[in-house]
Design goal:
heterodimer; A: 153 residues; alpha+beta; Glutaredoxin; B: 243 residues; binds iron/sulfur cluster; binds FE2/S2 (inorganic) cluster
Chain lengths: 153, 243
């Protein structure tokens, strides 16, 4: 069973306001690292919003995940600018290093690997985003060093 | 009243009348897919597109949800309209080659082999959203929504699992323009393959015919706030009783 105290608290902070659905989902995901079904059910009941509507919102935005995710989200930019500056090599190296395919979690649940198409920082490409921070001018070596920093915490 | 000219026919229309309403009245044929009188028109399929002229400027609009707010000249078969309609049908035919309704329309507008191809082609759904609308706005249980986006967008129950709020009324089956939603009544049960949901059918207490799902009776009792003969007897028997 998922502990629902955290989502109840999130709902409280937003005064159970239906119009804050997206913000509530974001905060809930922050707490649980993804959006478990029980959490969505709780939100649906407490806000009196049909589950179908919540499901529509959650599946619409790429930022929401219905599947468990690792502690750190590592998104490799595959946009055009990053692509020509060597993003494919970085992706290959990171894939090997973490032993996962994009969209998967590492066995120890430390990382989730994703690919994204342009994060809007083309000038400093190739870019990798870890959690909420962007790291630019990367090489495959530098990207491994970067990930190592997140391996322990 | 505004002056309206539709395919050469001169007539009048009250403010907020839609182009489609005027066309139906004047017996001008405009094809529709996602339009249904019972729900708010969303303009999802674009097949009803026509060309209008307002204050000397021409533009393409969807007839089903375009409210007339001034004098207007409408052309439902201009070259631009036909070109667009064919393109829309080409896309729809590529996505739903098994749909009889789309096949029919495509044939009518001279579309045969679409230039586009998609992998999954068994589905007849054109993602018009009518099933979602009827379930939410008429039935009132909101069992469905359009999930995902782009080419993955589709009508679905939450988590694509058996729905806990669907009552098995069949309104979605009835309203779907392309027969993409089906229900199978068999062995005292009603099954919706698309919604992965099954119900027990209940017998009419007079003629023994199966006439409603158990969930429907439960839901109707709740919204009516009381028990009612229509929850025990089928419409046929009820009509006989009245006589
Ligand atoms: S059968 Fe279920 S999904 Fe379809 S309209 Fe009725 S309640 Fe909604
Ligand atoms: S199932 Fe039918 S009604 Fe529902 S979106 Fe698809 S085509 Fe439209
Ligand atoms: S292409 Fe990578 S940031 Fe724009
Ligand atoms: S019928 Fe008008 S947009 Fe579908």
């Amino acid at each position: 069973m998922t502990d629902l105290t955290a989502v109840d608290k999130v709902l409280q902070t937003h005064n159970h306001d239906k119009s804050m659905l997206v913000a509530i989902l974001q905060d809930a995901q922050e707490q649980y690292r993804y959006l478990p079904k029980e959490v969505l059910t709780q939100i649906s009941i407490k806000l009196e919003v049909p589950m179908s509507e919540i499901y529509q919102v959650v599946t619409f935005y790429k930022a929401f995940s219905l599947k468990p995710r690792g502690k750190h989200i590592c998104s490799i930019c595959m946009g055009t600018a990053c692509h020509v500056r060597g993003a494919p090599l970085i992706l290959e190296t990171v894939k090997k290093h973490l032993d996962v395919e994009p969209g998967q979690n590492t066995k120890n649940m430390q990382f989730t690997l994703n690919t994204v198409n342009c994060v809007g920082a083309c000038a400093v490409g190739p870019v990798v985003q870890v959690d909420n921070t962007l790291y630019g001018n990367l090489t495959s070596m530098k990207s491994i060093q970067l990930l190592k920093k997140f391996e322990k915490d | 009243m505004f002056k309206v000219k539709i395919d050469g026919i001169e007539t009048e229309a009250a403010p907020e009348t839609t182009i489609l309403e005027v066309a139906n009245r004047e017996l001008v044929e405009i094809p529709t897919l996602c339009f249904n009188d019972n729900v708010e028109p969303r303009g999802a399929c674009r097949i009803c597109t026509v060309e209008v002229e307002i204050w000397g400027r021409k533009r393409l609009v969807t007839a089903c949800n375009y409210p007339i707010r001034g004098d207007i000249v409408i052309d439902t078969k201009s070259e631009k309209v036909m070109k667009l309609r064919r393109l829309i049908l080409e896309v729809l035919l590529a996505r739903t080659p098994k749909s009889e309704r789309i096949q029919e329309l495509a044939k009518k507008y001279g579309v045969s082999q679409p230039r586009f191809t998609v992998e999954k082609t068994d589905d007849k759904c054109i993602v018009c959203g009518l099933c979602v609308q009827v379930c939410r706005d008429i039935v009132g249980v909101s069992a469905l929504s359009l999930s995902e986006r782009g080419i993955l967008r589709k009508p679905e129950t939450p988590f694509d699992e058996a729905s806990s709020t669907c009552i098995g009324c069949g309104s979605c089956v009835y309203i779907c323009p392309t027969d993409a939603v089906t229900m199978i009544d068999k062995d005292g049960k009603r099954f919706f393959p698309r919604w992965k949901t099954e119900f027990k059918l209940v017998k009419c207490e007079s003629c023994d015919n199966l006439f409603m799902t158990d969930a429907q009776i439960k839901y109707l009792k709740k919204v009516m706030g009381k028990d009612d003969p229509c929850l025990h007897y089928c419409p046929n028997c009820l009509a006989l009783f009245k006589k």
